[in-house]
Each structure stands twice: as C-alpha cells, then as structure tokens.
Amino acid sequence: MIRRHRKAIGSLWRRLNPGRQALLVLVYLRKGETFTELGAGFGISTATAWRYVEETVALLWARSPKLGRALRRAKPDGLHYLVLDGTLIRTDRIKADRPYFSGKHRVHGMNIQVIASPDGTILWTSGALPGKAHDLPLCQAQVGHTVRKFSVWHE
C-alpha cells in the first residue's frame, strides 16, 4: 500500500523504505511513542516521523469501511441490531485541554466509537474524538439518521 502510494505521487527516494515506514507506524499506534522518540529510534527527524505517520494513517483510513457501506451490508447479512460502544484511549494532554478530559475516567483521552455486530465483528470505527463527550451524543452527531434504521443497543 505504501509502495503503491509512493509510486503514484512520484516519490523517488525516502529515508525509510515502505517496510520500515509501516513498522514506524505500527510502533506509534501500538506503543504511543512520541515523534521525537520515533525519529531517534528510526534515524529520522521528528518532522519526518510525523509526516510518515500522518501519511500512512491517511492511507489506512482511506481503506477502512465507511459508515454507510457498513450499515448497508449489515441488513442483508441478517443483523437485526448493532452494538455501539466507545472506548477512551488515554493521551498525555495537559489539563488546559478540557475537551479531551473525560470526567468519567478522570484522564485525558480520545474517544473512539465502534459499531459492531452482535458477535463482536467490528463493522465501523470513528475517527478520534474529544474524550469529554459521551458515546451516545457522539454517535448521534457522527451517524445521525443512518443508525436510526437499526435497533442500537447502548451500554
């Protein structure tokens, strides 16, 4: 995927090959290392680490299932209801970033919304949203009337 993207944009040379760029992004997503730490570990600058992560995450997002498509596939697949859940992913935000502070968990974080089938198969995930907001209002803002076609169980 990264190799095809580089070819499409005419990128002739990069500090990291596509495999190392993918590894950089996996480390970032799994461990949450700072861009400075990533840059030092992979022998690139902080700005380059940020650019590689942003580029690859955008490529992954483009391949992810979109909400409308996921919901359209759910009904023919015999799903009578879907499960909405959210999870808070902790961040190292400062206290001044009030939109990211979750009063429920008493930590700063990003809220990720997930719509899944009853057996737990993930059909769709949202982008990262401020941790302050509750699951249901976030869902209503994100998916609006589309979800109302289904019976959604909310925890």
UniProtKB/TrEMBL annotation:
All residue ranges annotated as the Transposase Helix-turn-helix domain in the record: 14-64
Metal-binding listed as a keyword: yes
MF terms (GO), sorted A to Z: metal ion binding
Pfam families (alphabetical): DDE_Tnp_4, HTH_Tnp_4
Annotated DDE Tnp4 domain residues: 84-136
Record-linked InterPro entries: HARBI1_dom (IPR027806), Transposase_HTH_dom (IPR027805)
Record key words, sorted: Metal-binding
Cofactor: a divalent metal cation
Protein name in the entry: IS5/IS1182 family transposase
Annotated source species: Nonomuraea cavernae
